[in-house]
Amino acid sequence: MKRLTLAFLACALALPTAAQAGALDCPSVELIVGFGAGGGTDLFASSIQTKLEEELGVPVQVHNVTGGTRAVAISQRASRPADGCTVFAITTDYVLLEVTNAADLSLTDMNVLVRAHVDVGLLNAAATGPESLEAMLEAAGDRALLIGGVGSASFDEGAVKILMDQVDAEYRYIPYDGAKEMHADLLGGRLDLAYDEVGVMLPMVEAGQIRPLVVAFGERVDVLPDVPTAGELGLSLSPPIWRGIAVAGGTPPEAASAIAAAVEVALKEGAYVDYEKGRSLDLAPGFAGPDEFPAVIEAEIERFGAAMAQ
Fold first, then answer.
1. Is residue 195 assigned to a domain?
2. What's the whole-number mean pLDDT along residues 179-194?
């Protein structure tokens, strides 16, 4: 029995990787990120890069493609063969590209494989402002609230519309190119509210600079136990922002399955786990595999499409 066990272990250790077995016929894999270096999605890609190389048996190179609110990155699919050698880091922003027809190519034509996590959003006021959303609405009276978010026709704009269109109040969405300028305007009193995610805003909350008024979630989150949720306030939830992995439509099933399996392994490893915890991405279950993820995409396209059409 001992010799049999040792022989089995030796065979298991000698098993080829998915790439060596022919599931992925690539000299290397390019992981395209539609955001600049150092951003959340770039850090996500970097956190799984080394483990993907181990699992796939080939080098994995992160390639940042910026411009056009991710339309440039998604257009890269047209020039790449559907062979599994190009992988895309996608986010909810790609759903908004679909809804607003801002890209020539459709997210629904891609083979979406894995959603890694969800990022819970917040409506935030300056620490010196009203202590609740109700108090802010009362203080504003007939004046339109100014609500900041990153990007025009972006996830932030869609999330703000879904939440605020349910409230009896006038508001204007103010798009920003980046969060730092938006945060400065919130602290300086030039905005009433700003939409951003828990992981980004938590240090400012802890420093006493801002006051989160609403968590865009159904249940209270442990790191903000005193902040009411949209669900508690009777508001229909906006979908959370997420990050995930996709390949081109038409990629051979065995190659797509190998990539999905490698990503799932990488999401359980130290580098990614540290990234997830460090950015408060573990507040709610977020993983969705190839069987569930396409349905999530379809539902969000419908939800954001309805909101942005109003």
1. yes
2. 96
